[in-house]
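Q: What would this chain look like folded?
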Amino acid sequence: MKNIIESVTSAETAIDLIVYIERFGQDFYKSASEKTNNDKVREVFRLLADDENQHLDHFKQLQELVSIDHTSTTHFIAEYGHFLEMISEGITSDLFFTRDMSPTKVVNMALRFEKDTLILLNELKKLFTGKKSCEIVETVCKDEKKHFLELNVLLKKLSTLDVA
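A: My prediction, written as structure tokens:
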């Protein structure tokens, strides 16, 4: 995680990195919600995918505040895209879903993702100095904490149902 944080030295790069990670998370939650056989996991992951989409909207606002225009960019270009992929790998590399995974394993992966994203956001928020920018980043941090708590509740429910 320290290498990621040291690689990001501007608010613009921080936003691009978080957008990349949030899109990755949104795709994971959407895919897992469509493929899982567990109704509780499906419901929570659908909500998390929707929340990640709201986060992307927050970061579009943030991009406007720091005067960059990547709001329509779905994929980042060439070396810069590769740079974002490389530095986000520590957060996203274990986030995948296969049908044979247990609900508990999938939720544990999501917990790690949310925790790592929250740690990254907390470290990167020092790059944002404007009041509105700081409020937006803090809003997303609160949402990530909420996700972490929701996933913990889901994990406990799964353990009481004896779902491995």
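The CA atoms of residues 37 and 72 lie 34 Å apart.
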